[in-house]
Write a structure and sequence with these properties.
Layout: H1 2-36, H2 39-49, H3 53-64, H4 84-94, H5 107-124, H6 131-141, H7 143-150, H8 157-163, H9 167-184
Helix pairs in contact: 2-5, 3-9, 4-5, 5-6, 6-7, 6-9
Length: about 180
């Protein structure tokens, strides 16, 4: 009888180990799919708005962890957590009629609108020696805050950094830049 129980126990341990391995494999496949499901849309937006694909991917990672159904506390929507106001500016600029905020749940539209906004921010700070932290501050906290923090910075990103009064924006910039470097490799 002991041998039979031992065989049964080994049988269940084997089944559980196989199930755990399969679960890990499926979770890894899902993560890979989620990270790469929007590659074509990211590439298209990168070409259209002249923003590096790795930067777009880093912003998506930080904003939504690649969840296109994500909704922020202040009403930001989708992969890039685009506000309806920013999306409306994009739609107007692109000549898109009858745009609604619900379209931001469509990954390809969200990526285009978010990349347009990010590209506009990068261009508006292009006179700075390192426009990226300024553009990311604007993307995260709005143009008026970024302008306030940039006032009197003498084109020194360190002074700009010290002027940022929102700890969450500092974390955001830090996180996006680090992830951007990872995606560039």
């Amino acid at each position: 009888m002991k041998m039979n129980l031992s065989n049964r126990a080994r049988h269940w341990v084997t089944i559980l180990a196989l199930a755990a391995g399969l679960t890990l494999m499926l979770a890894g496949a899902y993560r890979h799919w989620r990270l790469h499901a929007h590659n074509a849309s990211i590439a298209r937006a990168a070409r259209t708005y002249d923003v590096p694909p790795a930067l777009i991917r880093a912003v998506i990672w930080r904003e939504s962890k690649f969840d296109h159904r994500s909704v922020g506390k202040s009403g930001e929507i989708g992969l890039m957590q685009v506000t309806p106001v920013a999306a409306g500016e994009w739609a107007k600029d692109e000549g898109i009629q009858n745009f609604t905020k619900y379209e931001l749940f469509k990954p390809e539209i969200n990526i285009m609108a978010g990349t347009w906004y990010l590209g506009r921010a990068l261009r508006s700070w292009s006179q700075k020696s390192n426009p990226l932290p300024y553009a990311l501050a604007e993307y995260n906290a709005g143009r008026s805050n970024a302008l306030r923090w940039a006032a009197q910075d003498r084109d020194d990103p360190n002074i700009f950094w010290n002027n940022i009064t929102y700890p969450s924006t500092k974390r955001y910039i830090h996180d996006v830049i680090n992830q951007y470097r990872r995606y560039e490799d």
